[in-house]
């Protein structure tokens, strides 16, 4: 199998990249390394170069138009893919990325994110693959390689140690060199050596490695010294959006492309810096050559086909089939004491489908990972189709804290009595420069003209229902909000791009007025909000009109759910998080399920012992009832196919064969890294190399479920293991496993490495993942799976040299079903070395046979 295909050479008569470079003026060269817009690079017609288009993101290809009509296939969150531990399925996902990119006219997808899940409260936890660097790198390599084999670039992000969201544009990650090398740089190194990644995105945050403290885009020892010079990365280093804050420092540091453009430091100052000699033309040429190579690879140069020996297969993928199988396989059976899975449909005539996420499932996180799904379904419809049974749906609990959107079309009138609301754009003198009435308002006005400084919205809201109403407006920036003639909020702070970067614009906390209604009445909203003109982004105004109507009390919601559960043959309780909790831009403050969901689970279980709990969340949450519920399935943020895949899992179409790619805590106080809040602008990586489960093992703490845990729907016996040490220092393991259960199933054979006796726990973890493989077996079948533990699994960074060492000694090899369920052991003695060098593509992503 060809793992990487070089770019298609120029056709006869076509100039080389250096030949194209020679035809460019200095002004044209500078224009190439500055974005032409939000999602595109500069085109230069006379050399046959078209614009290259880039797009978010990690859970689908959003597209480049920004129009509401542009929809996309909504993928499961990346952590769900990692939960499959299946590199072949990752290949299929890479093919889907390529197909979706081509459908949207996208050349480079801004994914995958290979930062690590250092803390469970990280806001983008769901968007990352794993807390383990090997699993992260192995999955990412296959996604990237499969997409690039089809001529679509992937931009690996965020380089490096950008693992939390609080103050993400300014904080300094204090990470020692050994930890950087062994943990946080490791997935990037894999992607350069094994996938030949075409692009890498530099982070907003800064890094202090003990020698150099600088913003990521200015960190020359890492960007140029390690990534480009040591690893041989020949692609483009692109900035995170509006992250560039300097000219010379970032240019010398290793940044190649400032995005977006044409505004920003490079758009304003790079040309002068080159002319003045502050940035050399040779350095500029290197950046342009990298851009031209990327253009050649994606087919943006006239007469040059995209790279990749599978580029003609882009259209040959069934997107929905891949996504549905992926989300089904990713689901993790945390507990199934009574073998409840799968459920025979003929045994069920009535299903009680309960929980706030049963009514409104949370299928994708916020921020860069969000797309407008091309299709949607509901768990109720999916389970009705899967079981052929009556499905009784009740929320049973409250989980969302923010009031819902105001129904403008059915409940509101303009000042002149028309249905809807009146919006007026105002200039600096308060004059109306544009106005329109609308009955369709999603809280956003985009492409606001430059002369507009504010948006005023007026509407009269009809309050028909007796009881307590809550009415208001959520916004960002300068504003004045009146409800019922009362000023409920005012602010003078003028905002810009920062509200996009911290995601506060996505979920603005509304200012509201509570109104007790005895008889039908009305209340007026008069809101004037800032028109935001952020550098690098399109202009907008934000006014989220909200209205919470009197409704069923939490006690009444719970009682209705309990009654439904008692009357059903099967109760399925879907609990989880939502868009208020898991998003780019902010970290979580608690691991508890929001609202009253824990009470719901306990009450339903008491009413119907035949209860299955489904956890619809991307990042860990506390499950205080885990030991009481007979069957619990972790179901992730599953994208557009999630409802149908849930039906497949419950009824036996697809085995929920996922394994946790992170550790599930039982108590918040047990979490080794409980928060991500910078102290005086610094995030100290005090745990060093002991990230995730490594810290749990070192501290001797017992989680609710360990890294790698997952039961599936059959049982397995690990019978024997034989190890063979190769001349390259890699260890090949032949593991015999037997399916001892009643159903065919998939097993993930996990191999962990333990250091030689006497090793310092500061220098080596207690145990770390060395390799893994997926195997399928029929009931009673015995099969042998080969797992390779690459030589890189045994190396350690010597800061004194500096360089890699492979210490000699006897290493413990432990084989099992998770980091906490080890079934087999074998020791291997390695000769080691003292001159392993700085880096190299040795080892590699483990593969099973």
UniProtKB/TrEMBL annotation:
<comment type="similarity">
    <text>Belongs to the glycosyl hydrolase 3 family.</text>
</comment>
<dbReference type="InterPro" id="IPR036881">
    <property type="entry name" value="Glyco_hydro_3_C_sf"/>
</dbReference>
<dbReference type="InterPro" id="IPR019800">
    <property type="entry name" value="Glyco_hydro_3_AS"/>
</dbReference>
<keyword id="KW-0119">Carbohydrate metabolism</keyword>
<dbReference type="Pfam" id="PF14310">
    <property type="entry name" value="Fn3-like"/>
</dbReference>
<dbReference type="Pfam" id="PF00933">
    <property type="entry name" value="Glyco_hydro_3"/>
</dbReference>
<keyword id="KW-0326">Glycosidase</keyword>
<dbReference type="InterPro" id="IPR036962">
    <property type="entry name" value="Glyco_hydro_3_N_sf"/>
</dbReference>
<dbReference type="GO" id="GO:0005975">
    <property type="term" value="P:carbohydrate metabolic process"/>
</dbReference>
<dbReference type="InterPro" id="IPR017853">
    <property type="entry name" value="GH"/>
</dbReference>
<keyword id="KW-0378">Hydrolase</keyword>
<dbReference type="Pfam" id="PF01915">
    <property type="entry name" value="Glyco_hydro_3_C"/>
</dbReference>
<dbReference type="InterPro" id="IPR050288">
    <property type="entry name" value="Cellulose_deg_GH3"/>
</dbReference>
<dbReference type="InterPro" id="IPR002772">
    <property type="entry name" value="Glyco_hydro_3_C"/>
</dbReference>
<feature type="domain" description="Fibronectin type III-like">
    <location>
        <begin position="747"/>
        <end position="819"/>
    </location>
</feature>
<dbReference type="InterPro" id="IPR013783">
    <property type="entry name" value="Ig-like_fold"/>
</dbReference>
<dbReference type="InterPro" id="IPR026891">
    <property type="entry name" value="Fn3-like"/>
</dbReference>
<dbReference type="GO" id="GO:0004553">
    <property type="term" value="F:hydrolase activity, hydrolyzing O-glycosyl compounds"/>
</dbReference>
<dbReference type="InterPro" id="IPR001764">
    <property type="entry name" value="Glyco_hydro_3_N"/>
</dbReference>
<protein>
    <submittedName>
        <fullName>Beta-glucosidase</fullName>
    </submittedName>
</protein>
């Amino acid at each position: 199998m060809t793992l990487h295909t070089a770019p298609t050479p120029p056709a006869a008569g076509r100039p080389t990249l250096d030949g194209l470079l020679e035809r460019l003026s200095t002004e044209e060269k500078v224009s190439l390394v500055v974005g032409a817009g939000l999602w595109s690079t500069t085109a230069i017609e006379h050399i046959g170069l078209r614009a290259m288009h880039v797009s978010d993101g990690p859970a689908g290809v959003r597209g480049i138009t920004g129009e509401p009509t542009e929809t996309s296939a909504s993928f499961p969150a990346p952590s769900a893919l990692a939960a499959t531990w299946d590199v072949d399925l990752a290949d299929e996902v890479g093919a889907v990325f390529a197909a979706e990119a081509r459908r949207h006219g996208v050349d480079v997808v801004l994914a995958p994110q290979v930062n690590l899940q250092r803390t469970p409260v990280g806001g983008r936890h769901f968007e990352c693959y794993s807390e383990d660097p090997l699993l992260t790198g192995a999955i990412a390599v296959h996604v990237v390689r499969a997409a690039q084999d089809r001529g679509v670039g992937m931009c690996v992000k965020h380089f490096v140690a950008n693992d939390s969201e609080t103050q993400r544009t300014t904080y300094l990650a204090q990470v020692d060199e050994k930890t950087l090398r062994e943990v946080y740089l490791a997935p990037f190194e894999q992607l350069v050596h094994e996938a030949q990644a075409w692009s890498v995105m530099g982070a907003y945050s800064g890094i202090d490695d003990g020698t150099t403290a600088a913003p990521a885009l200015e960190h020359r020892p890492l960007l140029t010294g390690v990534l480009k010079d040591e690893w041989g990365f020949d692609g483009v280093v692109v900035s995170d959006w509006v992250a560039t804050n300097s000219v010379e420092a970032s240019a010398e540091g290793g940044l190649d492309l400032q995005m977006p453009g044409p505004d920003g430091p490079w758009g304003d100052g790079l040309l002068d810096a080159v002319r003045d000699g502050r940035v050399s033309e040779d350095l500029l040429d290197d950046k342009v050559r990298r851009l031209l190579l990327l253009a050649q690879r994606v087919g943006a140069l006239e007469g040059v086909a995209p790279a990749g020996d599978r580029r003609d297969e882009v259209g040959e993928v069934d997107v929905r089939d891949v996504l549905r199988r992926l989300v089904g396989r990713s689901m993790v059976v945390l507990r199934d004491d009574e073998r409840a899975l799968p459920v025979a449909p003929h045994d069920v005539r009535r299903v009680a489908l309960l929980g706030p996420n049963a009514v409104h499932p949370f299928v994708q996180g916020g921020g860069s990972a969000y797309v407008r799904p091309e299709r949607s379904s509901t768990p109720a419809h999916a389970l009705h189709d899967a079981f052929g049974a009556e499905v009784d749906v009740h929320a049973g609990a409250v989980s969302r804290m923010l009031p819902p959107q105001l129904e403008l079309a059915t409940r509101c009138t303009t000042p002149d009595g028309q249905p809807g609301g009146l919006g007026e754009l105002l200039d600096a003198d308060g004059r109306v420069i544009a106005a329109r009435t609308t009955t369709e308002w999603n809280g956003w006005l985009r492409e606001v003209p430059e002369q507009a400084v504010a948006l005023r919205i007026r509407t009269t809201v009809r309050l028909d229902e007796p009881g307590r109403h809550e009415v208001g407006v959520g916004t960002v920036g300068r504003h004045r909000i009146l409800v019922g003639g009362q000023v409920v909020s005012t602010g003078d702070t003028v905002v810009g791009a920062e509200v996009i970067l911290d995601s506060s614009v996505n979920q603005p906390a509304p200012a509201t007025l509570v109104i007790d209604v005895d008889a039908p009445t009305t209340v007026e909203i008069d809101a004037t909000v800032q028109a935001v003109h952020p550098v690098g982004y399109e202009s907008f105004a934000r006014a989220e009109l909200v209205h919470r109507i009197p409704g069923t009390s939490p006690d009444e919601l719970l009682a209705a759910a309990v009654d439904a559960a008692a009357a059903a043959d099967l109760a399925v309780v879907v609990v989880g998080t939502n868009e208020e909790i898991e998003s780019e831009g902010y970290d979580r403050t608690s691991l508890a399920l929001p609202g009253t969901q824990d009470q719901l689970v306990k009450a339903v279980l008491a009413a119907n012992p035949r209860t299955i709990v489904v956890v619809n969340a991307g990042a860990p949450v506390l499950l205080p009832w885990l030991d009481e519920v007979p069957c619990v399935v972790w179901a992730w943020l599953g994208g557009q196919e999630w409802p149908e895949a849930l039906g497949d899992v419950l009824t036996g179409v697809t085995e929920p064969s996922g394994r946790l790619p992170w550790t599930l805590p039982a108590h918040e106080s047990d979490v080794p890294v409980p928060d991500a809040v910078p102290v005086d602008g610094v995030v100290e990586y005090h745990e060093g190399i002991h990230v995730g489960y490594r810290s749990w093992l070192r501290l001797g703490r017992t989680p609710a479920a360990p890294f790698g845990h997952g039961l599936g729907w059959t049982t397995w016996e690990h019978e024997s293991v034989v190890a063979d040490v190769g001349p390259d220092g890699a260890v090949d393991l032949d593991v015999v496993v037997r399916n001892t259960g009643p159903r065919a199933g998939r097993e993930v054979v996990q191999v962990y490495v333990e250091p030689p006796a006497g090793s310092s726990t500061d220098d080596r973890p207690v145990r770390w993942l060395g390799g893994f493989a997926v195997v399928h077996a029929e009931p009673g079948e015995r099969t042998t799976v080969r797992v390779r533990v690459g030589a890189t699994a045994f190396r350690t960074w010597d800061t004194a040299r500096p360089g890699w060492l492979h210490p000699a000694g006897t290493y413990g090899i432990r084989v099992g079903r998770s980091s906490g369920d080890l079934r087999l052991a074998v020791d291997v003695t390695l000769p080691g070395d003292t001159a392993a060098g700085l880096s190299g593509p040795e080892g590699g992503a483990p593969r099973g046979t």
